[in-house]
Design a protein that fits this description.
Length: 171
């Protein structure tokens, strides 16, 4: 995983002073790095019971469809408010300063379907926990949550303690 870590750019004071941002675009533009991310995530979940892969807007849209393809599954998008055209289920969740809303098509998940949630970064865990709740609101089962990187010091995993959480790189 050190090879992946070396491809992640660290940007100081973004989006505000005192925050160290871990930019995965430098990892994604590297052919070997991008392939390794997809292969390693797919490899981890290849032997687990999964029916479909879900990606969270926006960077989860880059990784999740590729993982779904590698595993031979379909892809479900979870989007920000008012981006999906059909009947939607929504969840409002807390951010550090305010709230946000995510939506999924009501017919995206069938009852009992095992859903693998993929995103780029596990930070505080709020977004991932909200998406897991959306899956369960539609009577799906969270098969796991996979991330490129995890900011261990923010303890996001604590909000996901009832789920299988897998991250490739830890900070």
């Amino acid at each position: 995983m050190e090879q992946l870590r070396a491809l992640i750019r660290e940007v100081a004071d973004f989006p505000k002073a005192g925050i160290n941002f871990y930019d995965i675009t430098t990892l994604l533009k590297d052919p070997g790095g991008f392939k390794a991310v997809i292969d390693l995530l797919a490899q981890h979940y290849a032997s687990k019971p999964v029916d479909v892969v879900l990606g969270i807007e926006a960077r989860g849209f880059i990784i999740a469809p590729a993982v779904a393809y590698a595993l031979g599954y379909g892809f479900i998008p979870v989007r920000k408010a008012k981006k999906l055209p059909a009947e939607r289920e929504r969840i409002e969740y807390a951010l550090e300063y305010g709230t946000d809303v995510l939506e999924i098509h009501k017919d995206a998940i069938t009852p009992g379907q095992r859903v693998l949630i993929i995103d780029d970064v596990l930070a505080t865990g709020g977004t991932a926990a909200a998406v897991a709740q959306l899956v369960e609101m539609l009577h799906g089962t969270v098969a796991g949550l996979g991330f490129i990187l995890e900011l261990d010091f923010l303890k996001g995993r604590d909000k996901l303690k009832d789920y299988d959480v897998f991250s490739l790189v830890h900070y």
